[in-house]
Write a structure and sequence with these properties.
By secondary structure, the chain is an alpha/beta fold. It contains 11 helices and 10 strands.
Length: about 300
């Protein structure tokens, strides 16, 4: 039997989101042959305790996978520390991992895509990350999959040999950036990636993802991505730890299986330009932003 990559699912205090994430994962065509490890963080505040208990009750009913193991933390680690510890453990034990959070709905082919890509690029040192989310681009202008510099965190996979390059020390990362690298890192200054680094340094965020992307970038690594997203994030409803109410990144999931992967290991310049154009215009006109703000206030 093929050894499919283990799935790490990180959950906290959102039972409805967790239930939907699990429902879609169960519908994946190779779910029954995949191991699922669910990392349940403990409540950070007394106000969170009931919701955490509700999530943990839900986790006792999970089925549809080759194996389900629930890891309940006794104390609150926070999302970043929980992900770093969980991923580190699974790549040590299985040499690879697929990572989900509790607000991601997937295609029935998402796990297949991850496993095929993990097998295909296992020994390609430059390929360090496989993403399943993609911005709402026009997929008809791009191949089914492509290489790109930035690492998306909404459904992803990697290997032990890449995760070994992860540098959690923000000072060590920042010290290696010059002006050109900052601009390249921030997709020609169209995305606030460098600001996220600075915010982490100041204690204004606790992002594992920005440090993971920086680690990949500084190694000259690449990430594999689908042109038509295999994931949609349902957490932009004000319930998330790090996300407010927003529909800018909402996508329609690709219902088809991925059948094409790039042979040449280099960044797709056309994809880069399309992503840069999306990021430059993602917030829309002044009036579109006002309308979105009003709609968010009315929810």
């Amino acid at each position: 039997m093929q050894q499919f990559a283990p799935i790490a699912l990180f959950v906290y205090n959102r039972p409805q989101h967790t239930e939907r994430t699990l429902k879609y994962l169960q519908q994946n065509e190779i779910a029954a042959e995949s191991r699922l490890f669910i990392f349940s963080d403990a409540a950070k505040t007394p106000e969170d305790e009931d919701k955490v208990k509700e999530v943990r009750q839900l986790l006792k009913t999970v089925y549809g996978f080759r194996k389900v193991e629930v890891i309940e933390r006794k104390t609150n680690a926070g999302l970043a520390n929980s992900i770093i510890a969980g991923v580190t453990q699974l790549v040590k034990d299985y040499k690879q991992v697929i990572v989900f959070e509790d607000d991601l709905i997937s295609s029935p082919h998402t796990l297949t895509y991850f496993n095929e890509a993990l097998d295909r690029y296992r020994n390609e040192q430059k390929v360090m990350h496989i993403g399943a989310y993609m911005y709402p681009l026009n997929p008809n202008t791009l191949p089914q999959t492509f290489f790109y510099r930035a690492a998306t965190s909404w459904g992803w996979a990697t290997w032990d040999r890449a995760w070994d390059q992860f540098e959690p020390d923000i000072d060590a990362l920042i010290a290696r950036f010059d002006g050109k690298k900052k601009k390249d890192f921030a997709i020609d200054n169209t995305m606030n990636f460098w600001k996220q680094m600075q915010d982490f340094k100041r204690g204004n965020n606790n992002s594992w993802a920005i440090r993971w992307y920086a680690s990949i970038f500084l190694k000259g690594g690449l990430t594999l991505n689908p042109s038509h997203s295999l994931i949609n994030n349902i957490g932009h409803d004000g319930t998330g730890i790090h996300s407010g109410i927003n529909d800018i990144y909402n996508v329609i999931i690709n219902p088809k299986r991925i059948t094409e992967f790039p042979e040449v290991i280099e960044e797709n310049l056309q994809a880069y330009q399309l992503i840069k154009a999306f990021l430059s215009n993602r917030k829309g006109t002044y009036w579109e932003r006002i309308k979105r703000y009003v709609n968010a206030r009315l929810r």
